[in-house]
Amino acid sequence: MAGAAIGVVALFLAAASFGVNANTDSNDVNALNVFYTTMNSPPQLTNWVSQNGDPCGQSWLGVTCSGSRVTAINLSGMRLNGTLGYNMNQLTALVQLDMSNNNLGGSDIPYNLPPNLQNLNLAVNNFTGTVPYSISQMVALRNLNVENNQFTGWVPDKLKGINNLQTSGNSFNNGPAPPPPPSSLSPLSPPSTNTPPPSQRPAVPSSAGKDTPAKDGGKHSKLGGGAVAGIVICLLIVGAIVAFLVIKRKSWRLSQGQDPEQNEHLSPLASGLKHMKSIKPIKIISTIGKEELQKTVSMSLKPPTKIDLHKSFDENDTTNKSISRKVSLSSITIPAYTVADLQVATGSFSPDILIGEGSLGRVYKAKFGDQKVMAVKKINFSAFPSHPSDLFVELVANISRLNHPNLAELAGYCSEHGQCLLVYEFYRNGSLHDFLHLKDERSKPLSWNNRVKIALGSARTLEYLHETCSPSVVHKNFKSHNILLDGELNPHLSDSGFAGLLSNQEFQESSENSGYRAPEVTLSGQYSLKSDVYSFGVVMLELLTGRKPFDRSRPRAEQSLVRWATPQLHDIDALDQMVDPGLQGLYPSKSLSRFADAIALCVQPEPEFRPPMSEVVQSLVRLVQRANMTRMHESQSRRHGESGGDYEF
């Protein structure tokens, strides 16, 4: 019996050792697949592939592993181009990354770098833009080399404490750096949910391709002398294998953007974000001239009126609850209408002039005596659990303080005879949703220029709500239905400031919101600044593909826009196939690729890896700047008799 038990145990040990060492962690595989693709699939990287594969077991060139985890990547001087992968944050065991002496870049460093890096070498490449502040959150980094690139802006102050920091050969500003954006993670918080503490992180092996057997699965394990000990150890191994497979499956599902079972909870980090205090907001000033950018994107970029910027705010205060104080009618400066006025203007709220209907009520087109056309939102009485008049007046006061050129303008209100009505400017081109998805024979598709303009204007609005308003405003209902387009197709975000009226459950039950909900919202029901960023990424996907966020009429694999599109965002050929056919190929491939890069960051499954809206805005502004420079160059070429086609964003 004892001999048989020992034989069974030995068999399990051998199987466990083989299974752990031969199969690279699924997150690491996914990250390296994407990295290979974003580097344009270089043939000199032997054994690398763009799908699946086993980096540790197949000895991918330059990849060093410890057990099933990738711990080091050294591809210095390999004549590589392209850029870094957008999901390298999944390489949570990576402590060394050397990509020096290549031709990588031509764009910014991605926001999502491996969180536990100790050594990062990007010297002698072509990276542009600014060094992302997120690098300063990598608490294990003590060696950073970004020499001889094309960086501008500031070196974040936090980076100056790194023991070995090399930044020469760039165009950095010498003045003091601005403070970080308010939604950055605290340097003291753990950067990933499955990150081991520093004392438990794997050391970098001295040579690539040598796997270290798992401690509980090596051939030298000592089992003891009895059958009981053998059976106990056997059971422990089986349990460990099962736990390993469960964790691996969950990690894979999250990496694919799928929702785990509803009864699972958020990671400790995602839950802990609710209690973190953010850093003071900043206003990032673009290097492009204001007049030039206004002319280019046909929108006002005047800084919005700021609301008491000296107050601190909680980034993830998702309640947006009203301050418990009475607001007098005299403090509201916008006009007050009577019920009679609005009944006349709407034909007693005739169904014939109904514009739309949502969770908060119906919207009617109103025409007043001076021929001015407005939109009247008739709030559902049930939206206010108690004292509706007081809550409504406070709501009006709060909304009327919001001031941004890309917000739907509140022009008046009515609070009498138990009625709660809001009067807005009327935007004659309707919602972005209708413009994209309700087409008829008279419809004209949005040009690429207009799609970029709508994305940039909408991004600036969320940046204002998140990082300028104090306390910050979580929109909670960001979707293409709530982006209204004026005569010049400038976007105006509606329903800002309404998040506190309805419970999270009511928002979740709305079928219209299903494709816009971030994974953590589906799991916990809690909205945050980062869930707004996710929803913004979904709207950008709508602009790129012309598809709805969730469409049951499509094949099952294509019903969820995010799940279908995300794996293809960095495959140039697949990206061209994804573009809205209505564009008829009239878009520049470089701008399309940069647009896709921004989308990939916004729809990351883990909220802590999504960028703040200020970084999204800057990426879109740089897209516009590069387009302007290209057009200027083409114009000069044509003046000198050279041939050249028209360029767009």
What's the multimeric state? single chain
Task: List the uncertain runs.
Answer: 8-21, 179-225, 253-325, 643-649
Classified in CATH, the superfamily of the largest domain is Ribonuclease Inhibitor
Q: State the total count of DSSP E strands.
A: 15
Beta-strand content estimate: 5-15%
**CATH class assignment of the largest domain:** Alpha Beta
CATH-derived topology of the largest domain: Leucine-rich repeat, LRR (right-handed beta-alpha superhelix)
Look at the helices and sheets and give the structural class.
alpha/beta
Q: Given the C-alpha coordinates, what overall shape results?
A: globular
Query: What integer value in Å does the Rg equal?
Result: 27 Å
- Give me the number of helical elements: 16
Largest β sheet strand count, sense and barrel closure: 6 strands, mixed
* Mean pLDDT rating: 75
Helix content: 25-40%
Strand order of the largest sheet: 1-2-3-4-6-8
Number of spatially distinct domains: 3
Kindly list the characteristics that best describe this protein.
Transferase(Phosphotransferase), domain 1; Phosphorylase Kinase, domain 1; disordered C terminus; Leucine-rich repeat, LRR (right-handed beta-alpha superhelix); 6-stranded mixed sheet; alpha/beta; 3 domains; 649 residues; 16 helices
Describe the structure.
Strands 1-2-3-4-6-8 form a six-stranded mixed beta sheet, with no helix packed on it. It has a five-stranded antiparallel beta sheet with strand order 9-10-11-13-12. It has 16 helices and 15 strands. The protein is of the alpha/beta class. The protein has three domains: 1-252, Alpha-Beta Horseshoe (Leucine-rich repeat, LRR (right-handed beta-alpha superhelix)), CATH 3.80.10; 270-301 and 433-639, Transferase(Phosphotransferase) domain 1 (Transferase(Phosphotransferase), domain 1), CATH 1.10.510; 329-425, Phosphorylase Kinase, domain 1 (2-Layer Sandwich), CATH 3.30.200. Mean pLDDT is 75; it is low at 8-21, 179-225, 253-325 and 643-649. It has helices at residues 2-22, 26-38, 227-255, 268-272, 290-297, 339-346, 388-401, 432-437, 448-468, 504-509, 519-524, 529-545, 561-565, 572-578, 589-602, 613-639; strands at residues 63-66, 69-74, 96-98, 119-121, 128-129, 143-145, 150-151, 164-166, 354-358, 361-367, 373-379, 410-416, 419-425, 483-485, 491-493. Helix 1 (2-22) packs parallel to helix 3 and helix 15 (589-602) runs antiparallel to helix 16. 41% of the residues are buried.
